[in-house]
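[09:14] KT: can someone run the structure on this one? pasting the chain below
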Amino acid sequence: VCPPVYLNHLPLPSAQNVRYLGLQLDRRLTWATHIHTKRIALNNRSCQLRFLLTTKHINLKNKLFLYKLLLKPIWDFGNYGIQLWGAAKPFNITMIQSFHSK
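[09:31] RB: done, C-alpha cells below
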C-alpha cells in the first residue's frame, strides 16, 4: 500500500493506472495494461488493413512499407519507452511479439 501524497495539505487520490508520456504505468510496473491496450490497437489496425496486406496485387515491398508505416509505430512505443517495457513479465512481452511474428 502506498502512503498518501499531499498537495497543499490535501490528499491526492491514488490511481491503479496512470498515463504519462503515452505510457500507461500501473502500481507494480507490470506493463500489463499498457501492452493490452497496444495489442488491441494493433488488432484494430490490422483488421482495417487486412484487405491490403492479404491481396496478391501489392508486392512484398509495398506491404512491408505499409507495415512499417502503420503498424510498427503502435508496438514500438517510442524510443523512450522501449527500454522501460523490456522489464515487463515474459507473458506480457510475448503478447506483442506474437503479433509481430505474424
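[09:33] KT: thanks! DSSP finds four helices and four strands in the chain.
[09:34] RB: yep, looked fine to me
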